[in-house]
Amino acid sequence: MAKISTKDVATAFYESAKSKSGADLERTMTNAVEFLNKHKLLSKASEILWHLEKIHNKDLGVVSATVTSKRPLAKKNLDEIKKILKNRYKALDITLHTHEDLSLIGGIKIEANDEMIDLSLKNKVRQLQTHLLHQHV
Predict the structure, then answer these.
(1) Could you report the per-residue pLDDT of 58-91, keeping only the tens digit for each?
(2) CA nearest to 91, candidates 123, 56, 137, 60
(3) pLDDT of 3-21, one tens digit each?
(4) Domains parsed from the chain with CATH numbers
(5) Count of other CB atoms within 10 angstroms of residue 74
(6) Burial of 17 from C-beta contacts in 10 A (0-12 / 13-18 / 19+)
(7) Quick check: helix, strand or coil at residue 100?
(8) Is pTM beyond 0.85 here?
(9) In 3D, which of 123, 117, 106 has the Cα closest to residue 66?
């Protein structure tokens, strides 16, 4: 039997429940839990829910992003990041999650849509070093 990916399970659940409500939705969710149990996937529920959230957000035009910085960012900066990400991903809305990482020297890192945008000072120094090394070869 082929291995069932959690992303495929989430997609199937989402598509089967998308247009349902009330008793139909409840029956669909009961069938989904029975499916997870039958295929021993209950331990993967959190991963499936993560994929479901991503699928649902994509359907709604919402992008979820995590911004990592050394210190808390000002609202003005977070609003600017949201504006840039909206344009970059053609999103209707951006949900930002912030995270502090004291190991950063400066700058920020943004994770969104399976992409890492590394604007940290450490990364900029690494890029400059690479550029300088390749210029003198």
Answers:
(1) 899 999 999 999 999 999 999 999 999 999 999 9
(2) 60
(3) 889 999 999 999 999 999 9
(4) 6-58 (no CATH), 61-135 (3.40.30)
(5) 9
(6) middle
(7) strand
(8) no
(9) 117
